[in-house]
UniProtKB/TrEMBL annotation:
<comment type="subunit">
    <text>F-type ATPases have 2 components, CF(1) - the catalytic core - and CF(0) - the membrane proton channel. CF(1) has five subunits: alpha(3), beta(3), gamma(1), delta(1), epsilon(1). CF(0) has three main subunits: a, b and c.</text>
</comment>
<dbReference type="Pfam" id="PF00006">
    <property type="entry name" value="ATP-synt_ab"/>
</dbReference>
<dbReference type="GO" id="GO:0045259">
    <property type="term" value="C:proton-transporting ATP synthase complex"/>
</dbReference>
<keyword id="KW-0547">Nucleotide-binding</keyword>
<dbReference type="InterPro" id="IPR050053">
    <property type="entry name" value="ATPase_alpha/beta_chains"/>
</dbReference>
<keyword id="KW-0066">ATP synthesis</keyword>
<keyword id="KW-0406">Ion transport</keyword>
<dbReference type="GO" id="GO:0046933">
    <property type="term" value="F:proton-transporting ATP synthase activity, rotational mechanism"/>
</dbReference>
<feature type="domain" description="ATPase F1/V1/A1 complex alpha/beta subunit nucleotide-binding">
    <location>
        <begin position="1"/>
        <end position="89"/>
    </location>
</feature>
<keyword id="KW-0472">Membrane</keyword>
<keyword id="KW-1278">Translocase</keyword>
<keyword id="KW-0813">Transport</keyword>
<comment type="similarity">
    <text>Belongs to the ATPase alpha/beta chains family.</text>
</comment>
<dbReference type="GO" id="GO:0042776">
    <property type="term" value="P:proton motive force-driven mitochondrial ATP synthesis"/>
</dbReference>
<keyword id="KW-0139">CF(1)</keyword>
<dbReference type="InterPro" id="IPR027417">
    <property type="entry name" value="P-loop_NTPase"/>
</dbReference>
<protein>
    <recommendedName>
        <fullName>ATP synthase subunit beta, mitochondrial</fullName>
        <ecNumber>7.1.2.2</ecNumber>
    </recommendedName>
</protein>
Length: 117
């Protein structure tokens, strides 16, 4: 629909061919200046819970962290239904959080992945 309104031929899964450029332009406007900084909290609709869909995948590439809510975890009655394996953070780096915290986080992720698999 957006492609048709813009007079462009749709590309992947019907999204406008300029999706990545448009999203990049929007995200670049969210920046810190000498007068202050902006923290952006964005809710992203993920069609059919497919994190590889072009729209969420393009959006996630611009974010420092993502918190993914899981239907499967919610069905278990666990709230908030945060999926620690699909959620990400660029701050999970030993240079930022220290080696001990980093190793604990990675060990926990491995344990959860082994349990899931």
């Amino acid at each position: 629909e957006v492609s048709a309104l813009l007079g462009r031929i749709p590309s992947a899964v019907g999204y406008q061919p300029t999706l990545a450029t448009d999203m990049g332009g929007l995200q670049e406007r969210i920046t810190s200046t000498a007068k202050g900084s902006i923290t952006s909290v964005q809710a992203v609709y993920v069609p059919a819970d497919d994190l590889t869909d072009p729209a969420p995948a393009t959006t996630f590439a611009h974010l420092d962290a993502t918190t993914v809510l899981s239907r499967a975890i919610a069905e278990l009655g666990i709230y908030p239904a945060v999926d620690p394996l699909d959620s990400t953070s660029r701050m999970l780096d030993p240079r930022v959080i220290g080696n001990v915290h980093y190793e604990v986080a990675r060990s926990t992720q491995k344990l959860l992945q082994d349990y899931k698999g």
